[in-house]
Every structure is written in structure tokens, then in C-alpha cells.
Amino acid sequence: MIINKLCAYICSPFTLASEYDELTQDSPAAEGLYKNREQEFYIHKAELQAEADVRLSIIKEIHARLQGPDENTPGAWSGFEYDFSGSIFFYPVDLTRSYYTKPVHFSESVYWSSANFSGSTYRAWVGFSDSTYRGRADFSGSTYRGGADFHESIYQAEVDLSKSVYQDWVDFHESTYWGDANFSESAYRSWADFYDSTYQDEASFTGSTYQEGVDLSCSIYWGRVNFRGSIYEDEATFSGSIFQDTIDFGKDTGSGGSSRFTRCAPAFYDEANQQNTLFGAPNNDFSAENSEGCPILLTPDELPLDCRFLSTAQKDYLGNTLHRLEETNDEFLAAKNHEVEKELSEKLRSLTQELHDWREKVTALPPNSPNNTGTPQQTKLKRAEEEVPWFSAGGEALSLLDDYRKNGNDHAKIYVVIKDILESHENQIKILAEQTQQCLESVFRQRMAERRGRYTKAVEQLGNASAPVRIGGVYTLVGLADEWLLDESLAYLERVREGQVIINNLCTYIRSPFALVSHYDELTQDSPTAEGLYKNREQEFYIDKATIKSEADIRLNIIKEIRHRLQGPDENTPGAWSDFEYDFSGSTFFYPVDLTNSYYTKPVNFSGSTYQDWVDFSNSIYQSRADFNDSTYRNWADFRGSIYQGRADFNSSTYQNVVYFSDSTYRGEVCFNKSTYQDFVYFDRSIYQNWADFYDSTYQDEASFTDSTYLDMVSFFDSTYQEVVSFSDSAYWNGGGFSNSIYQGEVDFSNSIYVGGIGFSNSAYRGKANFSGSIYQGQVGLSNSTYEDETAFSGSIFRNEIYCGQSTNSGSSSRFTQCAPEFYDETNHQNTLFGSHDNNFTAENGRGYPIYRNLKGLPLGCAFLAPDQREYLKSILRRMEEISNKIHTPHTPDKTKELSEKLRSLTQEIHEWREKVTTAQRTR
Q1: To 10 degrees, the CA torsion angle through 64, 70, 73, 76?
Q2: Where does this protein have coiled-coil stretches (predicted)?
Q3: Which of 178, 295, 656, 874 has the highest count of CB atoms within 10 angstroms of its CB?
């Protein structure tokens, strides 16, 4: 899967690749695409280079793992299948000495620069067909054990396919070679197909062996062609071709001998299709070894039978067509516009097709040639011992059996011999086991040394000035960490310990400062700002912009590689790297951070960090401590849907954009205190199973804590809310505090359950305050506060004391400046029920509105709980508390989910009951 993703990235289109020729120049061309667009030219040039560096690094990392420790041996990644088909390589490709055991796909690709595949081994099928090579291509010295497909390709520069071995079929048909083409000193063990191709320059097939048929027919050879010193053990077909320059089969000072056709003479004339071969030069050499092969029979013109020279008109046509092809190809190579390239490419294809149609027409002549037949192949009969290899050994075996039969009575002697043999074998096995163990230990030491050597080099690369070198170091370290974890010869803890060293290096690189980050805001603009640092320094701006982008890409790739390995195959399961500890403290992330769906079993530290771009930690699991405190988030941040099994710290942080913490579960202590939220913040639908701190925080925009559950103490005191804030539909099972706070906008505490004591005292409410529709099991403190707008308590139940005035814990009464608080909702006929007679409803009358009470000492329209109501409330709250305590203890996820559903069901039940019993007719 990982290899597929890497290949998919290489195959993915990159728009600027179509402008490769112009963007690889030092400056915009006078008549090119970027004429009068200099600024855009340098931006695109930097972007193309940066993307090329990334893709080049991927190729380098793959290449490094396709080579074994010894020559022609597989590497760690040789067992994967690679599909690069349809790629555009706008950078040099070096895959020399690579070893592939699975199919490889490079078909339908374009190579703008050099491509080097030399010295490689392909044990399965390989495809290079339908490709275009604009730079030099090198496939020399390679071995192909499966089929090899190069057909319909265009080589616009030199191509080297020499010194190769093809164990299975190979197909080069319908290809065009604009530069020298070298196929010499190769071995073809199966059928080889070169037909219908065009060679614009010299072509060499010298010193090669063709064990089965080879088809070189229907082709056009513009330059000299050399077939000297080759052996053709089966059919060789040249018919329907045109040789504009000389063709040589004989020997000269530069080669060792003539070619040999062992089974039949080569076919220059195809009787079935009545096609001959045309030649343009008179001084050809058709000498072939006669003693061990078939000669090439010639006419008085020194041409193969039924062949002839090109006429003057045909030569003129060929010359003119070649000239047109060369001109069009030169225009194609110099084109600066993708549309022009496309148009010229079609023109080249049309001219090539026209030329081949003409070739087929002019090479068609009447038959009558003996030159296309050959000596029938004879079948050589083998001797019996050759046909059946074990024949001679059988006689010896029978002789031994006969000796054993004759001496079978000497049992004691036989027993001694057998015993000696067994003891000898046991000793040999023991020695072999010792030697094997020594060998394994030696191999293990070598493997450890080799890894540490690669580790040292990779760490050095991280400090290199070149971005491609640094990214290469990153991928080497990533690969090494994977290797350590997969090494089953080590105990798991030892593997993790070795891998942790690498993780520490990657984290250190992320934490390391980068000077240009201080100019982040300006360098992320499209152009220099009028009054910024880069005013009148345009060139430096684009250089620095490309530099920071290149460095961001490196660090972004580190985060991506880590994230990929923090995810298991199934949801909420650990990944390969989940058992490492991560320390990113003090980092400046000047790029997006995506660590979604991550699983950490060890502590993770992001404290003291700054995030210039968006950050996403959503849907993650932290089995140990998670530290995000003292951080600054300049863009949006997302932590929702996460589970924190250990302590979680978010305190002393600043969020300059919207932030999400909703739908999360905190099983350890959690701290959000002393933080500033400058935009929306969402904590909805979360569960806090341990102490939760939100105190001394500032909320400059809307904040939402709705539908949350607090199983332990929670503190929101000493906080300031500038806009609307909602705590509605929540449950507080062990008390909490909202005191000493300022609410500039509306605040909503409605439809909640407070099992322990709760404090709202010493606070200022500048907007509406809604405490309605709630159940208060413990004491409620509302004293010493100021309410400057409507305040609602209707539809609630207070089972214990409520203090609006003085109590033992507060010094003064509250003040309602706009209107008296509402304990009875006349519109909905909902009152408030009380369980205690020791309440304090005293309010400051001099500067506000009093709370008017009835003869029972309760606010008008309110009543005490009836005995059955008190008993029901006590019973259901006890059941709910039992379930909450069970949730507080460790459980399986399924059991926790079951308990949570029960608690939610009881919560729904108690609220329906509350609404029913607080609905009454007006009593005043």
C-alpha cells in the first residue's frame, strides 16, 4: 500500500511540467510563455524545482532499497510491484543496478531529462512501452527474465541497450530513434521484435546472439547499421525495410568476425507479402560465415536476391522527408508552449506514418527469391544415458543392494557400522549448528553495523544545505525505523529502543529553528508588500519564498510519515510507530499539521509550540500524557473526537482562530486554564471522568460547552466571556465552580444536572442568565453577584439550600438591576420546587429588584417538593450516581458505551419527570 501511494505520487500530474523547457532556463525567454511575466516565471521556476526535489527524493529512496549488499542481489524493497506508468519525469531518473522480483510498469511515460536503468535485473515482466525520452536513455547491462516491452517509444537522444540478456520475449517494434541506438553484445534467448521502426542515426546490433527468431523488418534505417559478429540461430527477417546508408554483416578492423546464420539465411524478401528491401549505399558488406551457417545470396549488384537500390526519386523523397522530420523535431524540442508541443507532436506522428506508408508501397515487388528459405532443422537423437540421467546410477545401486543381501547375516557388523554413521552424523549436525550460530551472529553484527552506518550518514544529511539531501536523510531514517521494528531477531522492547533514537532525531529536526519563519506572513504572500521587509528586494523575496516552501515540504513529509505509522489497519487501533514517545515541544509549525486518527501509547509533547497554519489532531487516542500547553494557534485547530486516557494539558494557550474540542473523552485530569480564545470555541458533547480545569480563561467570542458530562470536580471560575456562552444540557456529578467570572453576553446553564455543590457567586452577568430547567442536588451559591438583564430559574428543582444572599461562605447579597429573577414562568406555567427550608433569597433592594416570597418563604408561585417527589428524586439520582461511578472505573469500550447509554436514558427520564412536576397552575 505504501509503495502504491509513492508510485501514485510520482504518476500524479504537475501542471508546470509542461513548461519544463522554459522554466529550466535562467531567465524568461524573449518570446516564450513568460514574456513580460518575470515575477511569475521565478515563482513557477521555484515551484517546479521544489516539486522535482520531492519526487527525486522518492525515486532515490526507492532506488536505495532495490539494491542488495552484493552485486545483482535483491534489496529490501525488491519484492514490491511498481507502477509508474503515465508519469512525467521532469527530473533525472537514476534507477541503476536495481533488482525487481515483481512486475514493473514505466509505460506511457515522458522523460524530460536523462533516464538511467542500466545494470538492472527484472525477474518478472517489465514495461517501458509508449514512452518518450527527451534526454539520454541507458538500459545497458541489464537482465530481463520475464517479458520486456519497449514498443512504440520515441528516443530523441542517444539510447544504450547494449550488453543485456533477454531470457523471455522482447518487443521494440514501432519505435523511433533520433540519436544513436546501441543494441550490441546482447543475448536474446526468445523472440525479439524490432519491426516497423525508424532509426534516424547509427544503429548497432553487433556481437549479439539470437536463439529464436528476430524481426527487423519493415523499418527505415537512415544511418549506418552494423550487424557484425552476431549469431542468428533461427529466422532473421529484414524484408520490407529501407537502408539509406551502409549495412554491415562482415568483419572489419573494428569487429572480430562476420555474422552467422545457423538455421537459415536471413530474409530480405518476404514471398508471402511480396516485399523486398531497398538500399541506398553501394558499399555494403553482406559477408556471413559459410562454414557453420547459411550465406546471404547476392545479385550482380551485390545486393540480396530480389532486392534493389533506391531510385533517384526515392532518394529525393527520403531526403526531403528526413529534412521535414528533423525540422519538425527541432521545433518540437524548442517549443515553449504545451499546445504548440501537442500540435508538433501530432505533425511528427503524421509524417512518420506517411513515411511508413510510402515504405510499404515502394518495397512491394513480385516474388521469385530463393533467399527466404533455409536448411531444415534436424532433430538430434540422444543416447539412453543422456535421455535418462539416472540410468548409469541404477546399476551401481543394484550392485550395492546385492552386496547388502549377500552379507545380511552379519548383523552385529551392520549394527556397528550404522551406529558409527549415526554418531558421525550427530557430530556433524552439532558442528553445523555451532557454525550456523556463529554465522548468524556474524550476520547480525554486520546488519547492526550497516544500519548504524546508514543512521550516521542520514543524520549528517539532515544538516546538509541542500533540501533534496535533507529529505533523503529523512526517508533513510524512516526506513531504518521500519527495519528495526520488523527485525524479529531482537526483543520487541529492544526494537522500540533502537527506533526511539531515530524518532528523537526526526522530532529534533521538527523542533529546530528556521530563520525565515520570522518573515512567514510576508513570504506567504504572492509578491512583496509595499512597505514590508522585501520592499525593493523582489528577487530576494522569491528566493526566500522558495526556500521556506522547500523547508516546509521537508518537515511536512516528516509529519506525514509519522502520521501514516500512527494508524492501525482498523479504527482506533495502534500503528507501527504508536509505541514511540514524541517530543515536539517548542516547535514552530510553519505548514499545515495533519495528525488525525493517530494512536499514541506513550507520552506526546507539543507544549510551547506555535502553529502558523491550520492544525488537526482530531479523532486521536492518547494512552499516556498529552501535553499541548503554552502554545499559540494562529489558524484553526481541531482536537475533536479524541480520547485522552492520561493527563491532558492545554493550559496557558492562545487560540487566534476557531478551535474544536467537542465529542472528546478525558479519562485523566485535563487542564484548559489560563487560556485565551479569540474566536469561536467548541467543547460540546464531551465527557470528563477526572478533574477538569478551565479557570482563569478569556473567551473573546462565542463559547459552547453544551451536552457535556463532568464525573469529577470542574472549575470555570475567574473567567471572562465576552460573547454568548452555553453550558446547557450538561451533568456535573461531583460539584464545580463558576464563581468570580464575568459574562458580557448571554449565558445558558439550563437543562442541566448538578449533583454536588455548585457555585456561581461573586460574578457579573451583563446579559441574560438562564438557570432554568435544571436539577440542583447540592447547595447552590448565587451570592454577591450582579445580574444586569433577565435571570431565569423556572422549571428547576433545588433539593438542597440555595443562597442568593449572605451565607457562611459569602459576604453580601446579589443584585438584580434590570428585573427580579424569574422562578415562575407565567407563559408556560412552570414553577420551581425546593427541598430545603434553609434558603436565602435576600437581594439588594436599594439598587435592584427584590425576590418576592410567599408565606412559605419561597419565591411566588413556587412550592416545596412532596415526599414522594423527594423519594423519587433521591432514588433516580442514586441510580445515576452508581452508573457514573462505574463509568469512572476502567472498562472495555463496549462496556463504557453501554453504561453511557444507560446514564443518558436516565437523564432523559429525570428531565421528563422534572418538566412534568414543575408544570402547575398559577398559585398567585
Answers
A1: -40
A2: 896-923
A3: 178
- Inter-residue contact 364 to 274 (CB < 8 Å): yes
Q: SS3 for 425?
A: helix
Residue where a domain terminates, one of 48, 64, 80:
64
Contact 738, 716 (CB under 8 A): yes
pLDDT tens profile 791-816: 999 999 999 999 988 655 545 889 99
Q: Are residues 188 and 58 in the same domain?
A: no
Cell of 269: 524478401
Of the CA atoms within 13 Å of residue 443, those in its CB half-sphere come to: 9
What is the 3 state secondary structure string of 223-284?
A: CCEECCCCEECCCEECCCCEECCCEECCCCCCCCCCEEECCCCCECCECCCCECCEECCCCC
Please say if the pLDDT value at position 720 is more than 60: yes
Strand partners, 843: 814
Question: Cell numbers at residue 653, please?
Answer: 494557550
Give alpha helix (H) positions in 363-410.
384-387, 391-406
Structural domain contains residue 782: no
Domain count for the chain, please give it.
2
Distance CA 133, CA 113 (A): 8
Domain span at 10? 1-64
4 domain residue, yes or no = yes
Place of cell 510498469: 105
Q: Cβ distance 279 to 243 under 8 Å? A: yes
187 and 60 share one domain: no
DSSP conformational letter for 109: -
Of 64, 94, 112, at which residue does a domain stop?
64
Which tens digit of pLDDT belongs to each residue from 102-126?
999 999 999 989 999 999 999 999 9
Please report the pLDDT score of residue 448 as a whole number. Answer: 84
Which residues are CB-contacts of 730 (< 8 A; sequence separation ≥ 6)? 705, 706, 707, 708, 709, 710, 752, 753
Asked if residue 267 is part of any domain, the answer here is: yes
Is residue 278 assigned to a domain? yes
Average pLDDT over residues 856-871: 93
Query: Which whole number is the average pLDDT over 533-552?
Result: 92
Are 188 and 312 contained in the same domain? yes
Handedness of CA 11, 17, 20, 24 (dihedral sign): negative
Distance, in Å, from the CA atom of 488 to the CA atom of 491, rounded to the nearest integer, reads: 7
All cell numbers assigned to 28: 524568461
Task: State the Cα–Cα distance between residues 795 and 861, nearest whole angstrom.
Answer: 11
Tally of CA atoms within 13 A in the half-sphere of 863 that contains its CB: 15
More confident residue, 41 or 824: 824
Q: Quote the pLDDT of residue 731.
A: 95
Q: 369-380, pLDDT tens digit by residue? A: 444 333 333 333
Tens digit of each residue's pLDDT (9 = 90 or more) over 437-465: 666 667 667 888 888 899 999 999 999 99
> 677 exposed, middle or buried (CB, 10 Å; 0-12, 13-18, 19+)?
buried
Phi, psi of 317 (to 5 degrees): -60, -45
Length of the chain as a residue count: 924
Residue 357, pLDDT score: 87
- Mean pLDDT for 41-54 is 82
Query: What is the spatial order of strands in the sheet that 143-144 belongs to?
Result: 99-100, 121-122, 143-144, 165-166, 187-188, 209-210, 231-232, 260-261
Q: How far is 124 from 102, CA to CA, in rounded Å?
A: 5
Rounded to whole angstroms, the Cα distance separating 394 from 384 reads 13
Q: How far is CA 171 from CA 148, 152, 191, 499, 617, in A?
A: 6, 9, 8, 46, 52
57 lies in the same domain as 180: no
Looking at the fold, whether 234 and 355 belong to one and the same domain comes out as yes
- Whether residue 227 is found in the same domain as residue 363: yes
**CA atoms of 817 and 510, how far apart (whole Å):** 55
Between 16-20, 287-291, 371-375, the lowest mean confidence (pLDDT) is in 371-375
